[in-house]
């Protein structure tokens, strides 16, 4: 298994904030790696840096060994990176179908219409509710449906790497179950490599094989998912166990 | 001679960059001012200046006045007004009509024109003042056109149509009346001088600052106690009144007015004067007006091409110097730039001399002092400060907050936690008046505050900070914090212009409170720096200082530790604890569990808009539902 | 009744001009959040280009292509020329100013508008120019009681056809979806592989080109043009844009047509001198009652 995506010593400034202070991580081909951390830790900035939506101060990002800094942001989708942004950024006044079709925009010359139609069919199997609502405006969908839509939009281009930013954000636990079930399914059926950013550590560690914990721009802990699941520090990092006062 | 000129030019350039020692600049500016005054007074006596050029001088004066009038709306408040010529027209036509029909003397018509123009502005802008920038822009263009076309169409035979009104008299004081260009030249410039003094006083006052706060960030201004709507209207009314005065003087000089004098092009010219000169900059305005009037005169041989050059010049200016010829400088100017009299030269001395009793909230109940509020020391510990009762907030089909009950007790730190998108900030927005809840009540200190406007809620004692810091970026740190005491002060436009004793005392008090709070959060050394230049962690602190300066009883902080490193977070926690000691009550939204568990007295957990748990930190830490919401259910 | 129908048709005609110009405004605003004040003047410039083609071509064009061919040549030349002008304007007056903020861009746009209209005056002359009579088809058609010039009919049909085409392009094709997506969320659109520079190229070429066609038609229908033609049309077209909801292209079309009809009916039945006042009052009332336009989308700011 080769390294598909490599981040080396990445430093990113977000306005006046030093958002990332020397991050290094790896995504193997066919693997699922998760990046966890509290809000404001820098997880979204990491993905935006990989997609070239924010400028990099120093460090390197390599896709299949090739340095991404040469590529303008809009070419990355064609290169095989699909970034599914946090916050369910659907194009609200476009229909569900139009949103999905735009997912194929980057590969409209690479894939034949037949291939694209096949992918769409597969997606509608994964998310039947989207097929039902294909002519509805995306903004009228519920939160969970919008999340399914953004994931679908990313999948249509048959990417090599899926950058998933907090797919469970603001979703009811039962929907979260479904989304993670789908993530597993996508990984198994399509062999897509996934870099998963999440706040929901338990769920993320349930699907990933390796994990990194990000704290204020630095990697605090990393290891296999199994190791992290048992780690007390992970729990402490999320629920502040170190500073709990005795009950008053 | 050339040597001195070079030195002067160098000084101007230097003073435009980051300010060094503030004290050196003032005398230099005084010299410039004196030179300008001498120039203006002596101008008609210069050898080459004949009546034609005196008239040019007159028109520079008119456009300076018009530029200043628009500057209030556009420069100070940041409202896109592209129809300002309407108010100019109203002033001119009021003068024209009332003089020719009722023979009211021109001098009496000056204040009347101002009042009519101001009143007109009030009537037409009231229904549209809330519109977003670009929409407001097009509406003002429409207003400008409506006024012009109305004048053109001669309703009730009053405006005399395309040919306009003729035979308008000149100012007549009985024994003496204005006849020559020289008379009018001094007439307009005396008016301009008085207006400039008034505007400078206004700029450096509570009113002027409020305008700038609105320009920088309307939502933050409203959330800090500024009655945004009223101040916007005030700006329009005042701007219109001044334009009306210009209209009166213009009419009395030209003796003829017609709709052609008040076209959209005229409004464009005024807009350009303000932008070219520099937003909110009075000297810049003067230079801009001079440029607009004089350049076409100089290039008269290219008369038909002058607008062509002008259009190109605008584009070039915006590419290379968008801030204007003489932008208003705030950075490094120091307290001197605030226009408050009676300050010691040494700002540190000012800090040390502040009477603590007058700025702390938990001491004293001197309601005689205009900026104090009632002491909260009377309230016993554990008393309820804030309650939300069954608050629900729906946006279309989405329920962001669902039947939420929240209690915040006196002297405690309460934390609201929950996953992203749970609705915490929405709840804060309901509490602070930005949203009116779909149903439910918000009760503060026993009074129902549901649906009150944000600035009213601030004056009642709730202050907030924002998740994505909302400072006033181009203002200095001390100015930012001075927005806090604003809502407890009362000085209006008139007392500010006239610098009445009560206003001066109030300004001093405002500065005292702001100074104290700025120092309290450890930012005293940054007081004269622009807020946008502060590092992120310090910007957070500045926002907190600003909220403290409103002398609230309840401080509502939205993710105060976001973006702070470990050390800064530790310092923040200590600061928050000391605030409790001073008598504040705190309600936080937080994601950093070290903060929540470390300093909270009570924790409420929100998920998907509903309350899923509440209790002591240790109870929440072990609560399985909370663990599930954050870490997720065991598979 | 006859008057009503004739005014209605007049309204549709001028409304289609507003609509074509308004679509250009909406396109640029939607994607760039910039009010292109120079847009109306590009409409005027288009009108002048068409005029120049017909005057210079004189007899030759109409001989080779026939009178309608001449019209087609004029329109095509104007559209291409003004499309290029639009790109040039973006490059020199807007792109260097984006980083300076909203207000400087407005001033730059105003400056460009003044420059273009005065440039027209300098090149062609401040006086009215008349479209050459021999280049304008002169047939008049009668449908029962109603008479309409062939030029007007063709104007209406071609304008409506072009609007329909643009509607199809923007609302029904993948590229159009890309344009709309860019207007909604530029970053996410980039993630889809949409090249923002290409989108700019499109809106700054097509928008002005549409205006240019309207300009030539205006010249053909009304006969005379003047250098500051763009100002009045631009303002009303912008009103139409707001009516339809800024950034909403089909809305701009409907807004334009609606505005033209309302204006014409008002002019025919109430007063010509007050018609602009009427138009602006309509605008103000709509904005008070429905701040995002008749059809516009809701915009909410995240606090």
Gist of the model:
The complex is a heterotrimer of chains A (248), B (635) and C (303). Chain A is α/β, with parallel strands linked by helices.
What's the SSE blueprint?
The complex is a heterotrimer of chains A (about 250), B (about 625) and C (about 300).
Chain A: E1 3-14, E2 17-28, E3 32-36, H1 43-50, E4 58-63, E5 66-67, H2 76-79, E6 81-84, H3 96-103, H4 113-126, H5 128-132, H6 143-155, E7 161-165, H7 173-190, E8 193-198, H8 201-207, E9 210-215, E10 218-224, H9 225-230, H10 232-239
Parallel strand pairs in A: 3-8, 3-9, 6-7, 7-8
Antiparallel strand pairs in A: 1-2, 1-4, 4-5, 9-10
Helix pairs in contact in A: 3-6
Chain B: H1 2-16, H2 22-42, H3 51-76, H4 85-102, H5 106-125, H6 133-152, H7 181-203, H8 206-216, H9 218-223, H10 228-254, H11 264-277, H12 282-298, H13 306-320, H14 347-352, H15 356-359, E1 384-395, E2 398-409, E3 413-417, H16 424-431, E4 439-444, E5 447-448, H17 454-460, E6 462-464, H18 477-481, H19 493-497, H20 501-520, H21 536-548, E7 554-558, H22 566-582, E8 585-589, H23 593-599, E9 602-607, E10 610-615, H24 617-621, H25 624-631
Chain C: H1 2-32, H2 39-94, H3 102-124, E1 129-130, E2 140-143, E3 146-149, H4 150-172, H5 174-184, H6 186-191, H7 196-222, E4 224-225, H8 229-244, H9 249-269, H10 275-289
Antiparallel strand pairs in C: 1-4, 2-3
What is the subunit arrangement here? heterotrimer
Outline the low-pLDDT stretches of chain B: 15-25, 363-380
User: Biggest β-sheet of chain B, characterized?
Assistant: 6 strands, mixed
What is the CATH topology descriptor of chain C?
ABC transporter involved in vitamin B12 uptake, BtuC
Q: Regarding CATH, which class of chain C? A: Mainly Alpha
Counted beta strands of chain C: 4
Terminal-residue CA separation of chain B: 87 Å
Distance between the termini of chain C: 54 Å
Major sheet of chain B: order of its strands? 6-7-8-3-9-10
**Count of spatially separate domains of chain C:** 1
- β-strand percent of chain B reads 5-15%
- Strands of the largest sheet of chain C, in order across it? 1-4
Strand content of chain C: under 5%
CATH architecture of chain C: Orthogonal Bundle
The coarse silhouette of chain C is: globular
| Number of separate helices of chain B | 25
Biggest sheet details of chain C: 2 strands, antiparallel
What do the pLDDT scores of chain B average to?
85
Percent helix of chain B, as a range, is 40-55%
Number of strands of chain B: 10
General shape of chain B: elongated
């Amino acid at each position: 298994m080769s390294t598909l995506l490599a981040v080396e010593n990445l430093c990113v400034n977000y306005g006046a904030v030093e958002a990332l202070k020397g991050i290094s991580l790896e995504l193997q081909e066919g693997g699922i790696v998760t990046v966890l951390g509290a809000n404001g830790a820098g997880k979204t900035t990491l993905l935006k840096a990989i997609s070239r939506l924010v400028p990099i101060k120093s460090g390197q990002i390599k896709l299949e060994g090739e340095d991404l800094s040469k590529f303008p942001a809009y070419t990355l989708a064609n290169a095989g990176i699909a970034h599914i942004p946090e916050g369910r950024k659907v194009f609200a006044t476009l229909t569900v179908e139009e949103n999905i079709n735009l997912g194929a925009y980057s590969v409209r010359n690479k894939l034949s219409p037949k291939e694209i139609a096949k992918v769409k069919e597969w997606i509608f199997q994964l998310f039947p509710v989207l097929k039902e609502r294909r002519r509805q405006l995306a903004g009228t969908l519920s939160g969970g449906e919008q999340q399914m839509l953004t994931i679908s939009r990313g999948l249509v281009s048959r990417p090599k790497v899926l950058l998933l930013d907090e797919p469970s954000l603001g979703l009811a636990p039962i929907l979260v179950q479904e989304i993670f079930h789908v993530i597993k399914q996508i990984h198994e059926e399509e062999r897509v490599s996934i870099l998963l950013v999440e706040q929901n550590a338990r769920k993320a560690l349930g699907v990933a094989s390796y994990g990194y914990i990000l704290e204020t721009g630095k990697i605090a802990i990393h290891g296999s998912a199994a190791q992290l699941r048992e780690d007390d520090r992970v729990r402490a990092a999320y629920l502040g166990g170190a500073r709990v006062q005795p009950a008053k | 001679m050339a040597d001195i000129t070079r030195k002067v030019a160098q000084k101007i350039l230097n003073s435009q960059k980051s300010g060094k020692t503030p004290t050196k600049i003032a005398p230099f500016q005084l010299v410039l001012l004196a030179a300008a005054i001498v120039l203006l007074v002596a101008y008609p006596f210069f050898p080459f200046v004949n009546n034609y050029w005196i008239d040019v001088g007159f028109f520079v004066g008119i456009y300076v006045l018009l530029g200043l009038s628009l500057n209030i709306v556009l420069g100070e408040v940041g409202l896109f007004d592209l129809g300002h010529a309407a108010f100019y027209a109203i002033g001119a036509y009021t003068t024209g009509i009332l003089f020719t029909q009722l023979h009211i003397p021109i001098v009496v018509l000056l204040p009347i024109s101002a009042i009519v123009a101001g009143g007109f502005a009030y009537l037409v802008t009231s229904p549209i003042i809330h519109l977003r920038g670009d929409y407001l822009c097009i509406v003002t263009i429409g207003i400008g056109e409506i006024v012009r076309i109305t004048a053109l169409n001669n309703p009730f035979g009053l405006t005399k149509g395309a040919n306009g009104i003729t035979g308008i008299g000149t100012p007549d004081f009985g024994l003496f009346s204005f006849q020559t260009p020289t008379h009018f030249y001094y007439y307009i410039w005396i008016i301009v001088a008085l207006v400039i003094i008034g505007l400078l006083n206004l700029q450096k006052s509570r009113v002027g600052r409020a305008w700038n706060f609105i320009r920088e960030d309307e939502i933050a201004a409203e959330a800090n106690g500024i009655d945004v709507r009223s101040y916007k209207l005030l700006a329009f009314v005042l701007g219109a009144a001044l334009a009306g005065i210009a209209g009166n003087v213009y009419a009395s000089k030209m003796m003829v007015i017609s709709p052609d004098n008040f076209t959209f092009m005229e409004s464009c010219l005024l807009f350009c004067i303000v932008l070219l000169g520099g937003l909110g900059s009075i000297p810049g305005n003067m230079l801009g007006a001079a440029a607009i009037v004089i350049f076409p005169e100089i290039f008269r041989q290219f008369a038909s091409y002058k607008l062509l050059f002008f259009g190109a010049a605008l584009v070039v200016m915006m590419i290379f110097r968008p801030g204007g010829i003489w932008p208003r400088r705030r950075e490094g100017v120091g307290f001197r730039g605030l226009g408050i009299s009676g300050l010691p030269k040494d700002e540190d001395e000012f800090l040390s001399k502040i009477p603590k009793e007058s700025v702390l909230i938990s001491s004293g109940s001197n309601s005689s002092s205009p900026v104090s509020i009632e002491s909260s020391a009377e309230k016993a510990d554990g008393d309820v400060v804030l309650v939300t009762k069954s608050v629900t907030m729906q946006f279309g089909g989405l329920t962001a907050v669902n039947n939420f009950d929240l209690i915040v007790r006196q002297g405690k730190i309460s934390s609201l936690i929950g996953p992203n998108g749970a609705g915490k900030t929405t709840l804060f927005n309901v509490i602070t008046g930005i949203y009116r809840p779909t149903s439910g009540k918000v009760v503060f200190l026993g009074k129902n505050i549901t649906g009150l406007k944000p600035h009213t809620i601030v004056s009642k004692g709730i202050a907030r900070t924002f998740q994505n810091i909302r400072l006033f970026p181009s203002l200095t740190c001390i100015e930012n914090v001075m927005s806090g005491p604003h809502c407890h002060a009362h000085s209006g436009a008139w007392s500010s212009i006239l610098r009445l004793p009560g206003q001066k005392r109030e300004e001093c008090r405002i500065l005292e409170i702001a100074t104290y709070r700025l120092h309290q959060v450890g930012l005293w050394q940054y007081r004269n720096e622009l807020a946008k230049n502060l590092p992120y962690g310090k910007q957070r602190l500045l926002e907190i200082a600003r909220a403290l300066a409103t002398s609230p009883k309840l401080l509502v902080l939205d993710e105060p530790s976001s973006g702070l490193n470990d050390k800064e977070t530790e310092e923040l926690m200590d600061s928050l604890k000391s605030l409790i000691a001073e008598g504040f009550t705190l309600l936080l939204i937080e994601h950093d569990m070290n903060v929540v568990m470390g300093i909270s007295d009570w924790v409420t957990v929100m998920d998907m808009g509903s309350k899923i748990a509440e209790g002591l930190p240790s109870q929440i830490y072990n609560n399985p539902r909370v663990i599930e919401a954050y870490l997720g259910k065991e598979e | 009744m006859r008057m009503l129908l004739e005014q209605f048709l007049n309204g549709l005609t001028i409304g289609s001009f507003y609509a074509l110009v308004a679509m250009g405004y909406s396109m640029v605003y939607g994607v760039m959040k910039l009010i292109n004040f120079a847009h109306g003047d590009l409409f005027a410039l288009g009108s002048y280009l068409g005029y120049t083609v017909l005057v210079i071509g004189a007899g030759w064009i109409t001989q080779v292509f026939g009178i309608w061919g001449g019209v087609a040549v004029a329109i095509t030349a104007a559209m291409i020329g003004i499309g290029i002008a639009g790109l040039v304007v973006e490059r020199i007056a807007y792109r260097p100013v984006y980083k300076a903020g909203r207000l400087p861009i407005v001033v730059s746009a105003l400056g460009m508008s003044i420059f273009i209209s005065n440039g027209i005056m300098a090149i062609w002359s401040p006086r009215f120019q008349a479209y050459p009579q021999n280049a304008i088809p002169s047939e008049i058609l009668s449908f029962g009681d109603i008479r309409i010039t062939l030029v007007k009919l063709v104007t209406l049909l071609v304008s409506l056809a072009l609007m329909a085409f643009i509607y199809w392009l923007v609302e029904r094709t993948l590229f159009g979806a890309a344009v709309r997506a860019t207007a909604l969320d530029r970053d996410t659109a980039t993630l889809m592989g949409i090249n923002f520079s290409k989108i700019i190229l499109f809106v700054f070429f097509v928008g002005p080109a549409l205006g240019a066609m309207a300009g030539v038609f205006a010249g053909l229908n009304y006969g005379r043009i003047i250098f500051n033609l763009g100002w009045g049309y631009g303002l009303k077209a912008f009103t139409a844009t707001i009516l339809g909801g800024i950034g909403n292209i089909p809305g701009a079309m409907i807004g334009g047509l609606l505005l033209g009809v309302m204006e014409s009916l008002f002019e025919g039945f109430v007063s010509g001198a007050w018609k602009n006042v009427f138009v602006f009052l309509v605008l103000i009332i709509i904005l008070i009652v429905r701040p995002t336009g008749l059809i516009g989308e809701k915009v909410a700011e995240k606090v």
